[in-house]
Amino acid sequence: MNSLAINDSFCYTKMVINFIGVRFVKKEDKNTTDKENKKSSKQNKPKKRKLKVGRLILIVLLIVLLTAGGVIVYKTKKNGGGVQGFLSTMVGHDEDTLKNMPSIEFLILGESLNLTDTIMVASYNPKNQKASMMSIPRDTFVGKNQNRATAWDKINSLYQGKYPEKTLKAVNELLDMDIKYYIAIDTKALRELVDAIGGVEFDVPINMDYDDTSQDLHIHLKAGYQKLDGDKAEQVVRFRHNNNGTSYPVEYGDNDIGRMRTQREFITAVLQQTLKPQNILKIGQFLDIANKNVKTNIDLAVAKDYVPYAVNFSTENLKTGTLPGEPKKCNGVWLYIADKKETKTMIEDLFKEPEEIVDNQEGETSGEENTTTNDVSEIKIELLNGTGKASVLSEVTELLKEKGYNVTKTGSTNATSKTSIINRTGRTTQETEALKKVLKVGSTSSKTSNNKVDYTIIIGKDYK
């Protein structure tokens, strides 16, 4: 412990001891009467001895507590200070623990009526405070033969309310990953969590109007920025299309693609709200919700190691994407067929650290086939205005052209609060980050496309 912490603890201990001593003296003086003063010294000695012993015990206890407190303060500072430092100290970490912690990868399954409408792979690296999420369409083909495919070859058919391990195995084979953990979350957990944190501010992308009496599901929301309670939160993440058959606009990502984008953006909003310092005090309530509505194979001993650092996570460091591929009708069944080459590129971009992306034969990064270039004029950009202000579109177009980018398409889209940078052709992480640096804002994601541009940028109201 440094000398300053020792001196502070000693001074505070001394002050408290003196205060206790004064309190005892005052109490003795107050309770002492002339009659008691006339008692023999023989009678007074036992009482005084008891007072001294009691005072000594209190002093010893206070010294122990204050010394322990000083040690905790010291270790908290060594562990980074603040809430993170305190929590990491409480779970037994020291300043070297974080340096040796690996990133954690896990499968997220959103369960409703024993079906997995939401399937995501997520990762979190506590050392650099970066995280990633990739959505997997529920119709993704995981069978052996497309010509003989049935509905049972879709990835969402594997879970059936009780087989998360089957889904985890299929995801690992599909992505060529080694994910060890799964978290299956009932939609009740989402409702209760959102209500527990006081609701979530969210920009609902479109008007939503859908009813399904068989599931007792009724979705009726207006587009726009608003606070959602638990019930409305469930409506947002489960919406796919309206009663009249319309869905998300193409530029947002229609049907399941749009649904998965909304799910990722809503989860991001929930994280922003949940990780606020004032909600740390609700950890007991969060654990109760999890115990009732979450199935996972993550051991508590593993989970507790990551919690102290997660409180400092910023969603600005979150990268998202959707499994690359396209829908295809096989044997009379509509399936989503993953693109193996583009999937590999996305996995490297989202879940691999730079030193991990190595070609075993040539010792070069396997992503080099997607050309990295200093000549940004080769990068084609589609620019969509989601601010509602025409002047912003002109301003950003001029900015990108000044920096040398090739803006080939411009247009307008639904109002949105957040700027999005969508990597459509597997451009490198460095190129994506350079583009984000020019805009000084924007969340990044990846998605395949046939619109012959490298990036789609949707300008949100956060653009300054």
Give a description of the structure:
- The chain is an alpha/beta fold and 464 residues long.
- The protein has 3 domains: 76 residues; 256 residues, Aminopeptidase (3-Layer(aba) Sandwich); 89 residues, Alpha-Beta Plaits (2-Layer Sandwich).
- Helices cover 41% and strands 21% of the residues.
- The protein is built from 13 helices and 17 strands.
- The strands form 4 sheets. An 11-stranded mixed sheet has the order 9-4-1-2-3-10-16-15-17-13-14, with helices on both faces. Strands 5-8 form a two-stranded antiparallel ribbon.
- Strand 6 and strand 7 form a beta hairpin.
- Helix 1 packs antiparallel against helix 3, helix 6 runs antiparallel to helix 9 and helix 7 packs antiparallel against helix 8.
- The radius of gyration is 30 Å and the shape is globular.
- The N terminus is likely disordered.
CATH architecture of the largest domain: 3-Layer(aba) Sandwich
* Shape estimate: globular
The first-level CATH class name of the largest domain: Alpha Beta
Strand content: 15-25%
As an assembly, this protein is: single chain
Spans with pLDDT under 50 lasting ≥5 residues?
Answer: 1-33, 357-373
Cα radius of gyration in angstroms: 30 Å
Q: Which H/E pattern describes the elements?
A: HHHHEEEHEHEEEEHHHEHEEEHEHEEHEE
